[in-house]
Structure formats: structure tokens, C-alpha cells
Amino acid sequence: MPSLGLFMSQVFNGLALGVLLSLIAAGLTIIYGTLGVINFAHGALFVVGAYAGFSVFTFTGSFVLSIAGGALAAMLVGLVMERGLIKRFYHRPVEDQILVTFGISIVLVEVIRAIYGGIGQRVPVPSWGEGVVDMGFVVYPLYRIQILAIAAGALGLCWMVLYRTRLGLIIRSGIEDALMVRLLGINIQRAFLVVFGVGAAAAGFAGMIYAPIVSIVPDMGFRILIQSFVVVVLGGVGSFPGAILGGLIAGQILSLTSLVNPVYSDVMLFAAMALVLILRPQGLLGVEGRA
Questions:
Q1: Where are the transmembrane segments (predicted)?
Q2: Taking the CA atoms of the chain, what radius of gyration do you get in angstroms?
Q3: Contact 2/259 with Cβ under 8 angstroms?
Q4: Is the dihedral of CA 72, 221, 103, 283 positive or negative?
């Protein structure tokens, strides 16, 4: 039996991973729910954010600027992708969308590999995140706790945009009935561009705040992408609260299973997804028929 300290450490690891997956999956589920595009390049945008943030940190030494730089770079790449290619595939078959976004993902990863090489890069923990916190029952790294607050703040900001602004109303209406939004005279294409940019920025933001925890490598986005799709399925397509709930569940499954046997962490995650698909195909907080 693991000790209480080890168990609680894994619980907090699961929370930190869960909020990051929620942040990435929120962008992914909004893009799919609004645009109907299955974006297999979302994991590559996570990598773009991590490497762009690494470059900004190398030149400036400021972690805050590097977070902003990572989010901005991912957003710009996402906007170019959407305007240059993906918008032409909104009404194409799903297979075409998968192929084009997967192809973009490969191109982005290989461009990053050509620029930075295949050797892992490290982003140091910022000075304000160094050290540990003694909670009594566990001693835990300070930066991982700060990740919880940073990612939760970003999710809160996304929630404010979605549920307290006119743009959010258009986005949520577009998820439910894009045709009706067009009939009301709203420039849905402009809204689509904003949605894609926000989703890409969320992925880049998550990539940079995750960078001090792991070694940055060009292929790191593929596993994150798969886990994010599982989160979307768990929470429900197009559901922002579902992305948060699904991310927290996925983080705990991955972390607590690793406590017993790390080999089976992904197996248990996919088992949970299969169970949800059997018992509630629309996801935990999804709406039936939306997908």
C-alpha cells in the first residue's frame, strides 16, 4: 500500500495534469463544436507554444513574457492555418478534415525539429515557483500548485468570454445551430476565426506552462492530443464544462493508475472512455445529438 504522502502527491499531480488537459481540450471541443472540424493539429499547436515560449525565455529571461509569447505564437499559427487552409474544409467530409489537419501537424512538428533539433530542451522553473510547500500530509513542489492556479485562471477567463460576452453567445449559438446564426445576419466566418484563434492560444498557453515540468521535444504533442480527444469524449463534444470535468477525471485516472502500474495508465484512460461511450454516448455533460 502506498503511503498517504505518496497517494496525496499523485492526487495533486493528477489535478495539475487535469487542469492542463482541460485547458487544451476546451479549445479543441469549442473548435469542433462550433466549426465541426476535427483538428488533429491541436497537439502541434501545444508544441508551438512550448517552443515559442522557450525562445522568448531564452532571449528575455522572463517567464511571464514567455507564457504570453507561447500563447501568441500558437494563436498566430492557428489563424494562418484557419484562413489559409482549414476554412476550405468546413463542409468537406470528416475524412478530409482529419487528413489535412494531421498533415499540418506533421509539417509543424518537422519545421520545429528542423529549427530546434530533436534534442529535448529545458525551461527552468521560474524563480517565483521554486521550492516546495509543506501541507502537513505531503510536501509538494510550489510550481505545480501554481500551475493549478494559472490554468484555473485561464479556464475562468475562457468561461467569462463564453458565458458573459456577446462573442460567447455567438459561439454557443453556433455550437447549437450554426445555420440559424447565419440567418440572423451574424458574420459567422469572423466568429469562426476568433474561435480557432482562441482555441490555438489555449493550446500554446498550456504548452508553455507545462514546459518546466517536462523536457520539450517536437513529438510531445501527439500523446497530449490523444489524451485531449479522450477528455472531449468523456466530457461531451462542444461542452466547455464537460472539458473541465473530463480533464480532471482523466488527470486522476492517469496519475493514480501510475501509482499502481504506470504501464496501464493509458489503458485505464481508454477503458473509462469506452465505458462512457457505452453508458452515455454524448459524454458526461454533452447534449445528445450534438456530435
A1: 12-33, 40-57, 63-86, 98-119, 139-162, 191-213, 225-251, 263-280
A2: 19
A3: yes
A4: negative
- The rounded distance, in Å, linking the Cα atoms of 208 and 213 is 10
For 190, other C-beta atoms within 10 Å of its C-beta total 11
Express each pLDDT in 244-268 by its tens digit: 999 999 999 999 998 888 889 999 9
CA separation for the pair 40, 28 (Å, rounded): 9
Q: What is the pLDDT of residues 19-31, one digit of tens each?
A: 999 999 998 888 8
Domain boundaries, the chain: 16-220
Distance CA 72, CA 264 (A): 36
DSSP string, 205-239: HHHHHHTTTS-B-TTHHHHHHHHHHHHHHHH-TT-
d(CA 65, CA 250): 30
DSSP states along 2-26: --HHHHHHHHHHHHHHHHHHHHHHH
CA distances in angstroms from 121 to 15, 52, 106, 196, 214, listed in the order given: 25, 12, 20, 28, 9
Question: Residue 184: phi, psi to the nearest 5?
Answer: -80, 0
DSSP 281: T
| Residue 91: exposure state from Cβ atoms within 10 A (0-12, 13-18, ≥19) | exposed
Q: Would you say 72 and 129 are in contact if contact means Cβ atoms under 8 Å apart?
A: no
